[in-house]
Design goal:
alpha/beta; Rossmann fold; 2 domains; five-stranded parallel sheet; globular; transferase; RXYLT1-like; ribitol beta-1,4-xylosyltransferase activity; RXYLT1_C; RXLT1 xylosyltransferase
Length: about 400
């Protein structure tokens, strides 16, 4: 009998088994202490095998990873702060995230042996800046300050990412894993993975919580397009088609000649209202088929209508990429409307006019639920990939 199941104290009758009981009690106590020790050891062993990962967010896409996909918080909340940080435990991993202009190589404490670098490699100037960070990480690896590096990279819109190759482990470099945005032909699901572009966090696009009215209210417009119309692009064709049939009267259309990186408060509010007030969001190709608008529309339950054509460059031209462009979204079963040519739009809008509010509500629910599942799946995949790569394996 264990020492915990003795009779109530104060039972003073003589007990012929008292001697045996005492030694049993001692043995029991020893067993109990040995168990405690074992649990403690197992716990500390668990803490040893569990992973500490520090994410250095040096590109705006880091905020999509942390706040939208991980649902993480940042302190201080002020987006203009010089230094912002957050942390959370997920799976076997403790993640911490730092971002802001004050996060500079050599001027902050490296608090984990495993680092995820979030960088922008979209154009020459950004690549120069990104390589400084990579060289800093390489020095930390060489001096044994850190063990593993994963990279989340905003790729080039034409997928010209040759510069990153020498940094990868497979080419003799030190980067274990690469998560890259756009349909890069070298994605192999082993050490190179496709990552979603997400929303324009550099314009402070928020994490949107679905509300009752977002799901259930009738919306004033069939569709929306607020954006730059480039000369000789399919966006010009789109404008012509909308004007032809007076469809521009049924949609919220606000074209502009020049791309503007910085929104004014007014233009940003307009854009959010347009997403919230339209059942469909038109997504013509820009330099790449994948654009922030796709994810921003999902946030507000406005169904993306995507011009599903390959853009010039090296994005997924290999035979493996039969479902490019937007391989990642298609693989995940995105419930969007894909069209090859804007001439198909009038038929799409005709069908739209005939849909009941009830049908639209169901579609919005399905879209928002899909988007939430998509983010949860990306988060899990990210964690699993890091753990499989960084944790010591039990294979002898």
């Amino acid at each position: 009998r264990g020492f915990l199941d003795h009779g109530a104290a104060g039972n003073e009758e003589w007990n012929p088994w008292e001697g045996d009981e005492k030694s049993e009690q001692v043995a029991s106590q020893q067993r109990y202490e040995a168990n405690l020790k074992m649990i403690k050891n197992a716990r500390s062993h668990l803490e040893q095998t569990s992973l500490r990962v520090q994410i250095w967010g040096k590109a705006a896409i880091g905020l999509y990873l942390w706040q939208h996909i991980f649902g993480g918080q940042l302190q201080p909340a002020d987006v203009t702060a010089q230094w912002r940080e957050g942390s959370q435990k997920a799976g076997k991993t403790y993640f911490s995230f730092i971002t802001g202009p004050s996060v500079v190589p050599g001027y902050f404490s490296v608090e984990a042996e495993n680092v995820v670098l979030v960088l922008n490699g979209r154009e020459k100037a950004k690549i120069t800046y990104a390589t400084q960070w990579l060289h800093y990480a390489e020095t930390l690896i060489q001096t044994r300050k850190i063990q593993h590096v994963a990279l989340v990279l905003l790729g080039n819109e034409q997928c010209n990412n040759e510069w990153i190759q020498p940094y990868l482990k497979r080419h003799g470099g030190f980067v274990n894993l690469l998560f890259i945005i756009y349909d890069y032909a070298l994605v192999n699901e082993e050490d190179i993975f496709q990552w979603p572009l997400g929303v324009a966090t550099y314009r402070n696009f928020p994490v949107v919580e679905p509300s009752w009215s977002m799901l259930h209210d009738p919306r004033s417009y069939l569709c929306n397009f607020l954006g730059t119309v480039y000369k000789n692009s399919s966006r010009e064709t789109l404008m012509e088609i909308l004007k032809q049939d007076g469809l521009d009267k049924l949609c919220w259309i606000a074209p502009r000649e020049q791309w503007q990186p910085q929104e004014t408060n007014e233009s940003f509010k307009n854009y959010q209202d347009a997403l919230l007030q339209s059942d469909l969001t038109l997504c013509p190709v820009g330099i790449n088929t994948e654009c922030y608008r796709i994810y921003e529309a999902c946030s507000y339950g406005s169904l993306p209508v995507i011009e599903d054509v390959m853009t010039p460059g090296d994005c997924g031209n290999s035979s493996m990429y039969h479902s490019a462009p937007l391989q990642l979204l298609k693989t995940m079963g995105a419930p969007f409307i894909f069209i090859k040519n804007w001439k198909e739009l009038p038929a799409v809008l005709e069908k739209e006019k005939k849909m009941s509010l009830q049908e639209k509500i169901q579609r919005r629910k399905k879209l928002i639920e899909w988007y939430q599942n998509f983010k949860a799946w990306m988060r899990q995949k990210f964690i699993n990939t890091l753990e499989n790569s960084f944790l010591p394996s039990d294979k002898g």
